[in-house]
Every structure is written in structure tokens, then in C-alpha cells.
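Inputs:
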Amino acid sequence: MQPGFRFALPQASRRDVLRAAAATGLIVGFQLPGRGAKLAVAAPADGVFRPNAFVRIAPDNSVTVLIKHLEMGQGTYTGLSTLVAEELDADWAQMRAEHAPADPLLYNNLMWGPAQGTGGSSSVANSFEQLRKAGAAARAMLVQAAAEKWGVPAAQVGVSKGIVSAGDRKATFGELAEAAATVTPPKDPPLKDPKSFTLVGQRLPRLDSVEKTTGKAVFAMDFTLPGALVAVVERPPVFGAKVKAFDATEAKKVPGVVDVVQIPRGVAVLATGFWAAKRGREALDVTWDQSGAEVRDSGTLLEIYRALGKTPGLPAWKDGDADGALAGAAKVVRAEYDFPYLAHTPMEPLNCVAKLAPDGSVDIWAGDQFQTGDQGNAAKLLGIKPDQVRIHTLYAGGSFGRRANPESDYIVEAVSIAKAIGGKAPVKLIWTREDDVTGGRYRPMYHHVMAAGLDAQGKLVAWKHRIVGQSILIGTPFEGMMVKGGIDATSVEGAANLPYAVPNVLVDVHNAQVGVPVLWWRSVGSTHNGFATEVFIDELAHAAGKDPYAFRRELLAKHPRHLAVLDLAAEKAGWGKPLPAGRARGIAVHESFNSVVAQVAEVSMQGGRLRVERVVCAVDCGLAVNPDVVRAQMEGGIGFGLGAALGEAITLAQGRVEQSNFHDYTPLRIDRMPDVEVHIVPSANPPTGVGEPGVPPIAPAVSNALFSLTGKRVRSLPFATQGVEV
Amino acid sequence: MAISLVLNGRTVTLDVDPEMPLLWAIREAAGLTGTKFGCGQAQCGACTVHIEGAPVRSCSVPVSEAANRAVTTIEGVQGKVAQAVQAAWQKLDVVQCGYCQSGQIMSAVALLTSTPKPSDEDIDGAMQGNLCRCATYHRIRAAIHTAAKTLEA
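Outputs:
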């Protein structure tokens, strides 16, 4: 998902971010304010050593890292545990991970301020120092405990691969845990010189691989409580409709159905199990008030967007005189690009367990991506304080942004249902796939209008880029931080920071008013801006009679990270070298979440069908803490982006979503997955994002390759709607 | 209604609606949650189990059809093919979110049981019904080849 909440971030420097981290999280995280004011002076009854909010060392020698971010596939269990293990000098085999409880001060995302949540590809980036310090503090305390036990100076005690030693004396962490718990935590434990890292930068097995290959991993969908009722909700057929009346007579006759209640979003059927609840919902009769609902076709919306695209929008970036330079250009190139609504469709449909306690507080179990926002929204609904909302985060079966949203939609639904039945039973809300596909919060639909001018030498002299679509953040609590002068940072990211050297630029925006709920979707603004800019720059290269790779290089002289990934991808892909007949390459480079990724796609047409044969990817994500996780995220990002580019689209007919399940909303399947090769640029800079940046370059790289192969320029997505058989 | 099936080698009797999909009988009545709900329409494969060794989408099979038959889920799958597949999945760190992987593994075990040395085309054919939104497909393909090599040795 995204940044929504890169409060400190839009255009903030890495230094700013680290300074913010030092000023807030580290201190807070370490001092455990108000939670047992005197820290670790008496030995704990269970013998477990808890040096700080992030680390737990048990007598059985296991080291458990409390993970403040949601593990939704991106590898944060492994990533954050690597940081702790590195500074602790632990043995990787003794490392464990579990989700931390919700707490906006102890477990906040340091890039977001006092808010816990996962997004904007920020998990490792914001935790890099914090989790290392957590590990270093634990190590110093183990060393001190050993020194006292053995009567030797601490300086003579060493730690390696989970063994504390001095001379011929040795102890495991587990053996020292109880004694270490009585040591005063160091205020500012020293960190290793990155040159001496032994785990960071190595390939380490993922901590969640074994339980996820044996069926033992507990996702939110797998969690239940004794006596819990399963709820499914009948939601409006069009966005913005409201319940006018409902008749539950037939629904209540379905064996297993226990109750039917109205909630703000619709009507919930509660039953002893999912099947009965679903049957009950099918028997339910709801009439809807559609006044004020969004009932337009997506085709109509596109016509409106196109009309808007002919008029000036709100300027997001203005440099020089783009109109004047266009008027004087030797050659002008114009193009328009359209993008559909996209659904996230994580494999695990949305679900949430909520249990009201007699004191008015509530417990929530979910694959929770934005704990602080969800605590706030649930608290508001129940009229309690946010800290009376206890969130138990469980594994999420994917998210891609969906599980974090400003209204906490699925969390609030579950709590609403629990409230509506007076807390008489715990509620397990389950969305069906149809609920998910038709339920909204899509990547917005967009229309882009581009124009650029070349001088007589083929040099780029003017660039105009107009973006028409719904804002994700206007009207949400994030508006104050992420929307300036009507410009939503998530609408223009990847466009208003175009890296190419152009003297005259205008990027402007129209915020379309449509009643379809929208949301960040893996790589957010870069999903469309990356495509429009990288296909258009390719068009300009051809118009200038230059090689697309060389044309980009010339314009990126001031962007060494872009150049490095572009060169690496081109070299590894054999750019410029002959290919077998019937194959062609396309290239694209894009920066998102402070990482830069270049991809070269190699395509062919097989029996009239487009086939992406091979993708070579180069990434600069700063220091790669877990290189194999970085590779996995690039591979997955490519597959995710390619699926959307080839065939995914949500369309509306009179406001009704026309797709319902995976037969008509079609993510990539294995037979369309290309060979992927990932190269990581060596870097000593602090880590930057990897969860999202692999997505944006693939669609333009494929479009550019298809043009090179066939001369057909695909400017709108998905390909399947553009006369290309996929 | 009481329906008996041999679930992971053990006879269990479940009191369920005979039309209830096998998936929900396994998850809610038998309490085995390794088999996942993804689409309810046999479109995604997250619910794949074996009935008498053959892979089926349990979300679209009424539990009555499994009566008195041997049903194997991710919790009970065993033997050298299953071991080779799970070991390959772990060695290559195939999983990301992991939600679809029980189904992927059940499909892969069925493939390697019938086709010990599958080609990429065989893999595409057998695994096309299993969606992975994290798109771990590149590693799934590699892991199936790795498992095939283990079994050959």
C-alpha cells in the first residue's frame, strides 16, 4: 500500500526521516514509558528477558522479535528480525517473530509520527536503526550479565552466533536470560559498523516459510473464539445506496442463522457458520434507497475525464514556460493514456473477529495494517478510548493496500455487528470474494494527457502532463498532511518528480468527483504515472530517432541512481544485442518509495498472443538487508503489475460493478509468468522501499517492447481491451 | 446430518448440511484451517485438497460427495512426494503471504505423483488453477523442478 501517511516524507530527505526517527520512536520505544516505571530490576517470574519493547529472550534460548508491522507477504518478520539478530549476534536458528500488540507510541511507524501501520514500503526503512538498537541493547545486557556471573570485565566478554563467551566460559542467551533481566538497560547502545555485518546482506531462510508450507500459519481467517457467530453482510448494489427496508423472515428460517441486524453499511446475517450465514444472506430481502448513489457507467466517467482533460488543471509542478516551448518546438508529440479502476483482491478475503468485553472495551483480531487508525475508528463507534481497543494482529493473506483504509471499513463493520447484537457473542465477519471484487476502494480510474516538444536536434524542450482522476486522500483524515493546494501527493507521485531533464514543465491535475470509493493500491500514484511517463518518454525517443535506452541516459545525467539501475538492467538484458526472430525488448525506469527500479522486458507473439518471455530487473533499494526478500518482492511486483497490465479492470454499468470473481477479474496466472532475473545495485545507503517499487516499470516496459516488436503503441490499460490478445 | 469421511487417515463424523461445501466442513466442523477459502467458485485453488489422491477444489464439492472417502488436507499430506515438495518450497522460500500455498502444495504434490518429471508446460497446465496474488509463480515453478530432482535421486 502506500504512503498515505508518509507524513514526514513527501520529498523529505533521508536525513529528515532519520532525524525524525531519532527524535521520536527510538527514545519512546526504549524507555517503555509508564509501563513498569522501574525497568528490569527484579528477575521476572517466568525467567524471560525483555530488554525493550521489541525483544524477548526465553530460557529455552529462543529470541522473539515483536514485529510492529503487518506480515502480509512482504517479509517483514524476516527483515526486522534480521536487524535485531545482527546486533545481538544471535544465531539465525534461534530467531522467532510475532506481531506486536497495537500501540501508537511504542510501535509507531517512525515515518508516520505517532501512528502504527504498515505501508509506503517503509517497514525496514523506518525500523533500520530502531531494531538494530533493540538488538544492541539486549546484547549489552547479556554481556553485562555474563561479566557479573563470571567475575570478568564486560570488555572481555564476546558474543558470536548466539553464544556468549569469555575465555573458556560459555553460555547461551537462554542461560543468561534471567540474570540479564536484572541489568539496567543501556541508554545508547553502540551499533556495529555495517562493514562487520554478518547476517544483514546474507540469504537467510524466511521465518514464516515452514508454518506457511505446512498449513500451520494462523491467518485472521483461521482465527475464531468459542461461541463466535459468523457474519456476512449484504451491501448496497451501487455505491452510496442505503438500506430502505429489509425482510429477514426467510433468512431466519435457514438452519444455523441466529440473527439478522442492520448496520450502517447494510444488513448482517449472523449464523453458527459461514455456509449458513451465506445461505441466510441469499434468502434476505433488502430494498435500497438509491438517491444520491453513484449510478454512472465507467464509460461515461471516461468521457467526463476526457472533457476535463482539455482544460487546465491545478498545477502540481511548473518549471519554465511549457506552453511557450511547445509552441516553438520543431516537433510536438501528443498522446493520451487511460487507466481503469483496479481491485486489490488479496487471496485472503477481508475478515475480522470482534469481541466486546463487559467493561465496554473491545478485542479485535485481524490482518491489521493500520492499527492506530483502526483503534480510533472502532473507539469512535463504541464511544470508548482508542486504548480500549485491543488489536491482535495476525498474518494477512496479502493486502496490496486494501487492509489499511481511512475508514477502517471491514474493522468497523465487524465492530458494528458486535454492537448491534449487544455483544452477546463474538463476531467473525467474512467477506466473500464477490463482496471483495464489488465492494469498492479501488485504484482510481485515470485519464492522462501528455504533450512534449523536441527541438531540431531531437532534444526534449517541453513536457506537459495532465492527470484526471479521483483523489485518494481528499476528504480523509490524511488530507491535512498529504494534500497541498488541492494537489493530492498520491495523485502526482511519479509525475511531479519526473527525473528527466526538461527545461519547461507543467504537470497539472483535475480531481474528479465520483462516488466510487478509492484507495492506494500497491505503488499508488506510480501505478499510472509510471506507465504514462515511461511510455511517453519511449514515444519521444522514437520521435527523436534515438534508442530508448540512450535517450533516457542523456536525460538522467543528474540522477546517478536511475542511471545505475538503467545501465545494470540494460547490460544484464543484453540491450542492443540481437534477439531471435519474433522477439523484442522494451525498457522502463521508475523511482518510488525512495527506491529506483529499471526493467527490461522481452516479449514475443505466440499464436497471436502476447507473451512476456523474460524480465531483467535492477533495483537500488539502499542496503539490501535481505537480498533474497528483495528479489522475491521484485519478482512478485512484476507478476502483480503484469497481471493488471494484461487483463485487470473494474468497470461500472449504471453504477454496478460488472466483475464479481476471478473468472472476470483476472490476476496473472502461472502460465503468463515470465522468467525473472533480479539484480541488486550494491549500496551502503540506508535501506529504502522494496514492497512496491517492483510494480511500476513492468507495464511500460512491456508496452514499449510490444511497440518495438509490432509497431503497435498501447497507451491504455489493460492490454486485453486494446486489441492485444493476452 | 451426520456424514463420515476419512480425513487425513482418521474417520471423522461431522454433523453438517450435506450441501455444505467440503471446504467449510473441513475448516469449521473438523477445525482444520490449513485449507483456505479464496473464491468459493473453484477459480483460485486455495481450497485444494485430495480426495482419494486426486486434487479437487473443496469449495465447490458438497461434503456429501466426500462421504466415506479419503480426504487429505495440507495438515495430513505425507509421503516422499509431499516431503520433497515442502522441502523445496522451504529451500527456495517460495512463500510470501502464504495464503494460497496450501493449495499450491496440494496441486504440486498431485502433479508430481502423476508426472514425476514435469516440463514447464506440464507445470503450467497443472498449476494454472492456483492463483497467487503475490505472484510467487517463478519460485513455484523452480520448486517443482527441485522437488522432481529430489525424487529422481
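Remarks. Chain A touches chain B through 63 residues (CB under 8 Å). The first helix of chain A runs from residue 14 to 23.
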